[in-house]
Design a protein that fits this description.
The protein is α+β, with helices and mostly antiparallel strands. The protein contains 16 helices and 30 strands.
């Protein structure tokens, strides 16, 4: 069984209980009085009994590990940051505190459903106040059952997750879901060491790598169908991907891997075919501009009427090495267990993401671990912890193969664009379409599925919109505004350009803990309005159009 812990607090910042399950026995530590340090009592107990222990908590990076770090620092203990706050190590006891959420990418309730473990219990956290004084009259018994169930359920779920990975791929979970996916691919499908990293061409590869399409086409709509593509990125794993050594070749649009080109997109295109970085944003413009793109994307644009002039080109051997992995994920997703299917969806998606990971890393060390201080700078007032940025190269970054990530992203944009061109779109994100059209759907990955219908929809800007269902339920997507609940009237105001202020709270930064400032619950305020100056399309009334560019060279892509 997997050792786990869970911290419960009142008012976000005051710990009152810690549950600990070592895989065999459950123990709990309860706050006995106002001055009782329950976190340190927990640490002292496991420090005496356990050595070389890996201990997991769900969402530890953003919550539990902050309390662990604060207690260890307050008692003068040395800490090592192995993966930021996602994995911290108490050096003296050699105990690591790790985030189980990043192992699976799903909440605890979802894990319990996925792996058929005892369900997470519910608890009204407003009742969690000074329970050591009131006993059972404050619900102490119910609270203790809730805490124990959280720990044991998490341990059982992680144990079953390990078994499933071993059965299907012969691997156990690594520190992240992405790393686990790429190790499974390496062991069961294709040796990653046989894929060229092409570090000498990485600047060109990165410049030709773009995110998914996210655009508002019409700011208000009625009677809309909402579609998304089933496992968009995994469905693209059947495409040949770059695996060989890149080399310069004579420009030829019919072949090649990526190219620098000058393109002229006709002004009458309502949906621009090519991505472009402009003033810090990703846009899909019309007009004339220069950049680096995957050759497949340039070829598609040319077939759609864009004038493409190749300036230079890189080429290498390509093979559909991801195809079998994608088929395995497709088979694993064919289950009646919806939550387990979602885990496999994330597992498949993270493979290409890991290949595209950047080489720069932030490294934090205790002063006692640093022999040469060059490149380090102190991050706390006592100059005990120091940070530096390092560049991972060669054998230190065996799974960074950015050309594969470039190709998968490009192919996903191409397939998404093809679907958009067959509809009357109002809004789209990476794998979704909001449209009045009725589009064909199917059960396989890569097929569209109808996920909802909107009686009325309000698209304020990218990733900020709301729609009213035919049952009268207002669904909203407000990225960057946690717990920001709006009414339909609020969305109408925002489309008019009027401003609304959001309030939300978060725990303080972990660097504040190292500086002795403790754990602080900060109140944040953020204004949201139309922000037309930041849109990636030109707004004209309720319609939008692609930004038109004159010929301009993207300095980042041609250096």
């Amino acid at each position: 069984m997997v050792p786990v812990f869970d911290i419960e607090v009142i008012d976000w910042t005051c710990p009152i209980a810690v549950g600990f399950y070592d895989g065999r026995t459950y123990r709990e530590f309860l706050k006995l009085s106002d001055d009782y340090d329950v976190i340190w009592e927990f640490l002292e107990a496991i420090g005496k009994d356990q050595k070389k222990l890996r201990l997991f908590a769900h969402n530890a990076a953003h919550f539990d590990n902050k309390f662990i770090l604060e207690a260890l620092c307050r008692h003068g203990q040395k800490v090592k940051f192995v993966a930021g706050m996602a994995k911290i190590v108490w050096i003296e006891a050699d105990i690591s505190f790790e985030d189980s959420y990043i192992l699976v990418g799903r909440g605890l309730a979802s894990l319990c459903e996925a792996f058929d473990t005892p369900r997470k219990l519910t608890w009204d956290h407003t009742k969690t106040k000074d329970m050591w004084e009131g006993g059972d009259s404050t619900g102490l018994t119910e609270f203790r059952k809730y805490l124990e169930r959280d720990c044991i359920s998490l341990s059982l779920a992680l144990d079953k997750y390990c078994q499933v990975l071993l059965e299907n791929f012969g691997v156990t979970p690594s520190s992240t879901l992405s790393l686990t996916a790429v190790k499974a691919f390496d062991k069961s499908f294709y040796p990653v060491k046989q894929i060229e990293a092409n570090e000498g061409f990485e600047d060109f590869i990165r410049a030709a790598t773009y995110g998914g399409r996210n655009e508002v086409y019409k700011r208000y709509g009625e009677d809309l169908n909402i579609y998304d593509v089933r496992s968009m990125y995994v469905s693209c794993y059947d495409v040949p991907v770059p695996i060989g050594k890149l080399y310069w070749t004579k420009p030829n649009l019919d072949v090649g891997t990526l190219a620098r080109a000058i393109v002229k997109v006709p002004d009458d295109k309502l949906i621009g075919p090519l991505p472009y970085r402009h003033q810090g944003r990703l846009i899909f413009p019309v007009g004339e501009f220069e950049g680096l793109w995957d050759t497949r994307e340039l070829r598609y644009a040319a077939n759609q009427g864009t004038d493409v002039t190749l300036v230079s080109q890189l080429r290498c051997d390509e093979e559909p090495i991801l195809k079998d992995f994608g088929l395995r994920i497709q088979d694993l997703r064919k289950t009646d267990n919806l939550e387990l299917s979602k885990i496999w969806k994330l597992f498949g998606l993270r493979l290409s993401g890991k290949f595209g990971q950047h080489r720069y890393r932030s490294e934090v060390k205790h002063i006692s671990e640093i022999e040469d201080q060059e490149g380090y700078y102190p991050i706390d007032d006592g100059e005990i912890y120091h940070e530096r940025t390092i560049l991972m190269k060669g054998h230190r970054s065996p799974y960074i193969k950015p050309a594969i990530n470039m190709r998968v992203r490009s192919e996903a944009r191409l397939r998404h664009l093809s679907l958009l061109q067959d509809s009357d779109p109002y809004y789209c994100d990476t794998d979704s379409i909001y449209t009045t059209s009725k589009l064909p759907t199917g059960p396989e990955i890569g097929d569209l599925r109808l996920v909802g219908r909107a009686a009325r929809a309000y698209f304020v800007r990218c990733k900020f919109y709301g729609y009213l269902t035919y049952r009268g339920i207002l669904n909203q997507r407000t990225s960057g505004y946690r717990d920001f609940k709006l009414s339909e009237y609020d969305f109408r105001k925002l489309l008019e350009g009027r401003e609304i202020i959001s309030d939300f709270q978060s725990l303080g930064n972990w660097k504040d803990i190292l500086q002795g400032k403790g754990i602080v619950l900060s109140d944040r305020h953020r204004a949201v309005s139309r922000f037309t100056q930041f849109e990636n399309r030109v707004t004209s009334g309720s319609e939008t159009y692609p930004i038109k560019l004159p010929l301009q060279r993207n300095k980042k892509t041609i250096s």
